[in-house]
Amino acid sequence: MNEIQVRQAGPADADEVRRLVAELTPATAHLRFFTGVGTPTAGFVAALLRRDETHGAWVCASGNRLVGHVSWAYDSGAAEVGVVVADAWQRRGLGRSLVAAALDEAARAGLTDVRLHVHPENGWLARRLSRGATTAVLADGMVTVTRPLADLLASAPATPAVPSDPSPLIMQEWGSWLAPVPA
Ligand SMILES: CC(C)(COP(=O)(O)OP(=O)(O)OC[C@H]1O[C@@H](n2cnc3c(N)ncnc32)[C@H](O)[C@@H]1OP(=O)(O)O)[C@@H](O)C(=O)NCCC(=O)NCCS
Hints:
- The protein is an alpha+beta fold.
- The protein has helices at 14-22, 26-33, 42-48, 94-108, 123-130, 149-154, 174-177, and strands spanning 2-8, 55-62, 65-75, 78-85, 113-118, 135-139, 142-148, 169-171.
- A hairpin with a 2-residue loop joins β2 (55-62) and β3.
- The protein is globular.
- The two termini are 27 Å apart.
- Residues 158-183 have low confidence and may be disordered.
């Protein structure tokens, strides 16, 4: 039985993050990275795992396999967030759980706004995030949405949705997934 867990990323996740990105469908990789990535380089993976005062990285694991990733980075007063969920795991609440984890951490780092770069082909997401945003600008081939971080945190569910496939799963308690990974 696999357990779904959203937790802080660490250096030991490099191989799984590389596999996760390499196995994304071209469409999903394009929506996340705006370009074909293929198998990411070590530097690319290190950037996805960067954690310091101005960066955070979280992963969603099903047992030993990573099925989602989110990172945030300080960008002109806001937390710029990028998130991706493996194709077979989308629409089960994992994206929201990842974003909530990243935003909670960014808020604790003192940031009050969130910024997301959304591909214009990602119409449902651009519309959803733009509703009520402080600014939503289409430029340079992307929709850049900036809004108070509290907006998205407030709408996070108490628990991620429980996936029914592809295997029986036990969701970790919501209260515990925010706990920092012991050093
Ligand atoms: C965006 C993404 C991370 C969402 O992850 P997810 O795990 O599928 O999303 P969730 O299941 O948590 O759903 C969150 C909400 O979005 C909605 N949603 C998800 N996919 C959707 C779709 N294709 N069409 C319409 N709504 C969708 C869900 O219904 C849910 O709505 P609710 O909160 O009102 O119930 C995922 O689709 C993905 O990896 N996309 C490619 C990369 C990308 O676009 N990243 C964002 C830009 S950085």
